[in-house]
């Protein structure tokens, strides 16, 4: 379930697997810019077209929104440098936005597993167990990526990072699964381009406002939790 044939590439330095257009930009745009700028190829797999997101009155209906968000994402990735740098790549899938938890879970796992085998990233980045904010698509993506990662022999697993915030969630259920960051990356040199990349997602401007209001520190410092490659049984 993809809009294009998979691209033969790899190995990558960093591979993001996220459900929606814009999930790549808030917490990792600076890290991507730094790695790409240093000559390290990176990749992004977006599982849905974001057709169930906010429209802010800019378009009518899910199909029109999906087309708009594809344009926004393309502009964002060009700003980051992901789609203009040899060796880096973006793959867009068409799993149903806001309904990943109802979809065939094995199909999601297979997409993630195939990507890990083919692209051979040094590090894969996705959402933490609580999805950061509890969004069902975020949580399901976490489960699928983790399942795909665990199918690899322990010695062949890439490093795995989750998005992580210094601030525990106020919601008790989300806080119970909160993982504090173990990695912090100063992306101050890239903050101007990062803000420009964020602004490319014009239809999701309320998400931008919410992110900056809640996590202003994460504009200049990108924080991640690194998973133990060989979990204790």
UniProtKB/TrEMBL annotation:
Record GO terms (molecular function): hydrolase activity, acting on carbon-nitrogen (but not peptide) bonds, in linear amides
Pfam families assigned to the protein according to its UniProt record, in alphabetical order: PIG-L
Protein name, entry field: N-acetylglucosaminyl deacetylase, LmbE family
UniProt source species: Deinococcus reticulitermitis
């Amino acid at each position: 379930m993809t809009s294009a044939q998979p691209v033969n590439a790899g190995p990558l330095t960093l591979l993001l697997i996220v459900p929606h257009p814009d999930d790549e930009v808030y917490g990792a745009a600076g890290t991507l810019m730094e790695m790409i700028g240093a000559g390290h190829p990176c990749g992004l797999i977006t599982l849905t077209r974001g057709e169930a997101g906010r429209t802010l009155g800019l378009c009518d209906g899910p199909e029109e929104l999906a087309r708009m968000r594809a344009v926004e994402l393309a502009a964002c990735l060009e700003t980051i440098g992901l789609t203009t740098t040899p060796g880096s790549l973006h793959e867009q899938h068409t799993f149903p936005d806001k309904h990943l938890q109802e979809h065939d879970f094995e199909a999601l796992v297979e997409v993630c597993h195939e990507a890990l085998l083919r692209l051979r990233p040094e590090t894969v980045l996705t959402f933490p167990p609580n999805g950061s904010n509890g969004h069902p698509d975020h949580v399901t993506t976490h489960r699928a990526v983790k399942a795909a990662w665990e199918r690899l022999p322990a010695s062949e697993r890439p490093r795995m990072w989750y998005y992580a915030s210094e601030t525990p969630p106020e919601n008790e259920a989300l806080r119970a699964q909160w993982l504090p960051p173990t990695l912090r990356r100063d992306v101050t040199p890239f903050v101007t381009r990062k803000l420009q990349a964020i602004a490319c997602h014009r239809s999701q401007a309320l998400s931008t406002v919410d992110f900056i209001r809640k996590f202003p520190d994460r504009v200049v410092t990108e924080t991640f939790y690194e998973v133990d490659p060989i979990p204790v049984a």
